[in-house]
From TrEMBL:
Gene3D superfamilies: 2-enoyl-CoA Hydratase, Chain A, domain 1. Belongs to the enoyl-CoA hydratase/isomerase family. Pfam families: ECH_1. Keywords: Isomerase. The lineage of its organism: Bacteria, Pseudomonadati, Pseudomonadota, Alphaproteobacteria, Hyphomicrobiales. GO terms for molecular function: isomerase activity. GO terms for biological process: fatty acid beta-oxidation. This is Enoyl-CoA hydratase/isomerase. Coiled coil: none annotated.
Amino acid sequence: MREGGDMTSAAEAPVQTEMRDGVGIVALNRPDKFNCLSSVVMAGLDEALAMFEGDRKVRAVLLLARGKHFCTGADLDEVLDARRERGRLEAFITGGHRVLRRLEVSPLPIVAAVNGLCLAGGLELMMACDVVFAGQSAQMGCQHARYGLVPGWGGTQRLARIVGSRRALDLMFSGRWLKVDEALAWGLVNHIVDDSALAGKAEAYCADLAKKNPGGLAAMKQLCRNGLDGSLQEGLDMERSAVVDALMGENVSEGLAAFRERREPLFR
């Protein structure tokens, strides 16, 4: 991997990677298939995240897509082929679960830039990210019910946790698509920007994250994610312990010194 504007993957690779100014960029690159998710794509996402997590220069990750659409779901050709053998189908579903969960538990902030259609498995991929930017023309939906399917990569669980069970069931039952204004109101996306500015705005956000205390951001992400799985008191207990650890760290010393000296902190 190298800094700059050249993609490190070949032009035809289904997942491309780049690093700029502390931001690891991951691009889905199957525009002719609307960036549908195959096992090869999932492996590419897994490899990209592992590479960025192992690079101390990378402080945040931006996930985006080539072409008109972010992602329209799983690769149905592979699903149809895998249905011939239950074990292969289970492996395909399990592999997707593992990669999306890795996005959630990664110490790096994961920001998605969603353009065009974001459907089914694409919606599940988006929901596993931490912050979502969406273009004005983006549309999102869980259309499994239209074709007799069931969300297979965490859709039934993450959607209900983000928007509430009634909205989640309505979206899954109906199979309808949300425009970005409604997705924003529901909490599925954080920021709506002009389509032409989508990648730039999302990358600028990530570049700002790259200037912050990486340990602090990782702690916030872990506490927020894990706290939802237990009671409020359990979450508060986790927070109390993590805050004490953070306050003892060198980066907090740098942050407080920068505050006193009225300058920008330089975090390690």
